[in-house]
Amino acid sequence: MNMMYTKEFLLDEINSIREEIGHDKVNIFIEDIHLKNDELWIITEDRPDKSAIIGKGGWVVGKLREKLGLESIHVESYGDFLNKKYKLELSSKTIKNLDLDSTGLKNLGRTIESKLDDIYSFSFETYFDNLEFEESENTEAVVALSGGVDSSFSLILAKKLGFNPKAITVDPGTIILPNQFKKNIKTVTEALGVEHEYIESDYSDVVSEAFEGNVHPCGRCSKNTGELAKKYAKDKKIPIIIFGDMLATGSQCINLQDDSLYRLNLPASLSVGKQEIKSLIKNYDLKTFKGFGCPLLYEVHRKFPHMKKFSIQRILRETRSGALEPGEALDLIWSFYKTE
After folding, report:
1. Contact 295, 175 (CB under 8 A)
2. Which of 76, 69, 67, 83 is nearest to 34 (CA)?
3. Which of 25, 105, 232, 292 is deepest in the core (most CB within 10 A)?
4. pLDDT at 315 (0 to 100)
């Protein structure tokens, strides 16, 4: 590590920047510092210290990155890392205890252990640049691919972990699956060389109920998609279905659906945050969308503003879990009001 980057040096720089842009003077406590591949990780004692280093609108950490000439600076609280470590340990135990012979799951277990060994600065991009897992001869997993960043990340990860995945997309029409998502699906499946199939389905009941203002569409849509993916996997006798769920962490990261089918919430199994997802998918030329990117949801928000409450609850769940940073959550919530 560059010896310049001591706690004292960084605190002097941070306080100087805070004073320069008119932020109040506060006492900031740094627990640890890690520099890896031109990325600096600052581990603070608690979340208020983290907020002080980031600054309003990210101004402080942004100016610090420019001043030090680094590619990126990540600021995390020590308590958040302890929580992530505990979740990863639970995931590791859960995967090890499964009575399922799977190349992909074995490689997932190894990856969880590698992340535990390097929990401060683990990078999926660097990890897979330096390691290539053996792929299963048979298709071990179906990946539910929507074209959004979470499901695209799940497919990339499933391929690199050796699940030899098959991707499927439930297509209820452009009001739920717009064409820009289909472009992402084509881009990522072709880049990975993964077989993909669309499953056309009638979601007219979901749409009509949503436009009556009585039912939030996300729950119904997610349930329908899950059932169709489950049926597809069972019909093809594929033992695992993979979803981009980020909330079902630890012991809930994989569950037996029935006697022969497991549901694996891949990002959740690795306690992944949005920034880690963006870091891995950035080389696949995928288009990102503000908010949830679902035309039906935004039309429901416009027509029935009270429905925003349930969308915000979903965002807050991901924020409490650590999958979303508060600033990211605020951007998502704000996107609901920019479309009015």
Report:
1. yes
2. 76
3. 105
4. 87
Please tell me the number of Cα atoms within 13 Å of 83 on its side-chain side. Answer: 15
DSSP for 255-314, please give it: EE-SSS-EEEEHHHHTT--HHHHHHHHGGGTPPP-STT--HHHHHHHHH-GGGHHHHHHH
**Confidence (pLDDT) at 291:** 67
Residue 15, pLDDT score: 94
- β-pairing, 254-256 vs 262-265, is antiparallel
Least Cα distance to 92 among 249, 312, 307, 319 occurs for 249
**How many C-beta atoms surround the C-beta of residue 303 within 10 A?**
12
Do 44 and 9 touch, CB atoms closer than 8 A? no
Distance, in Å, from the CA atom of 297 to the CA atom of 311, rounded to the nearest integer, reads: 9
DSSP 151: H
pLDDT of residue 267: 94
Q: How far apart are CA 177 and CA 195, in angstroms?
A: 19
Q: What is the DSSP string of 154-186?
A: HHHHHHHTT---EEEEEE--TTTS-HHHHHHHH
- How many Å is the Cα radius of gyration of the chain? 21
Query: What is the structure's pLDDT at 2?
Result: 44
CA distance 272 to 157: 12
* Residue 33 bridge partners (DSSP): 42
Give the residue ranges of the chain where pLDDT is below 50. Answer: 1-3, 340
Chain centre distance of CA 1: 29
Q: Which helix (H) or strand (E) holds 223?
A: helix 217-235
Q: What are phi and psi of 215, to 5 degrees?
A: -130, 130
Q: Across-strand partners of 41?
A: 34, 74
Which residues touch 131 (CB under 8 Å, ≥6 apart)? none
Region of 336 please: left (phi>0), alpha (psi -120 to 50) or beta: alpha
